[in-house]
Amino acid sequence: MIRVTLAFVVVGLTIAAVSAQTESSRPRDPAWTAPADASGRVNPLASRPQLSAGGKKLFGQRCRTCHGDDRRGTDRAPDLTSPAVQAQTDGALYWKISGGNSRAGMPSFSFLPEPQRWQLVLYLRDGAISADSSLHFRDTP
Ligand code: HEC
Fold first, then answer.
1. Whole-model pTM?
2. Which one, out of 35, 84, 106, 123, has a CA that is 20 to 30 A from the CA of 71?
3. What's the gap in Å between 97 CA and the centre of ligand 1?
4. What DSSP string runs through 86-107?
5. Separation CA 131–CA 128 (nearest Å)
6. Collapsed DSSP state (helix, strand, coil) of residue 79
């Protein structure tokens, strides 16, 4: 009888651990939006998508602790692959990375050279595909 109870406890704990893992990351603030002139800026590196590799490296050094290994967010920072983020323009993402939102815990990265910030934007897009008006995120190996 004790064994059966223990088995239930183990199963219960496993389910709890799995659901904690898949629990969504810290929610984003929908009110934090970039001004129109910033949103309209075009990524000067748009024609060189291969530079996203450098962005990935930077992300590992500067962003991963909060936004997670795969950009999918942690309890500290939101998922950057979500449709709400991917629907924003390159310019808007660049503006958010540059200025941050210190009150909400997103630091400013204006100290990084501009090309590095645009490389980060390239990386945030890497693997994101758009179909019709909705944006999806495709897993990259
Ligand atoms: C100390 C933790 C932390 C670090 C480090 C960090 N972020 Fe953030 N980031 C946040 C938080 C918290 C938010 C949510 C802010 C909000 O919603 O107001 C955020 C929001 C963002 C957003 C806006 C998402 C949206 O919902 O519109 C982008 C883009 C972003 N971060 C990119 C980056 C990049 C790129 C780096 C590395 C260069 C980085 N962040 C490093 C905590 C962090």
1. 0.82
2. 35
3. 7
4. HTS-HHHHHHHHHH-BGGGTB-
5. 10
6. coil
Q: How many residues does the chain have?
A: 141
Q: For each of the chain's 141 residues, which pLDDT tens digit applies?
A: 566 666 665 555 554 544 444 457 899 999 999 999 999 999 999 999 999 999 999 999 999 999 998 999 999 999 999 999 999 999 999 999 999 999 999 999 999 999 999 999 999 999 865 433 344 555 554
Domains and CATH numbers, the chain: 2-137 (1.10.760.10)
Q: Which atom of ligand 1 is nearest to the CA of 124?
A: 35
Q: Where are the alpha helices (DSSP H) in 23-112?
A: 36-39, 52-62, 64-67, 83-86, 90-99
Nearest alpha carbon, ligand 1 atom 41:
63
Whole-number Å distance, alpha carbon 117 to ligand 1 midpoint, is 13
User: Which are the contacts of 72, defined by CB distance < 8 A and separation ≥ 6?
Assistant: 25, 79, 80, 81
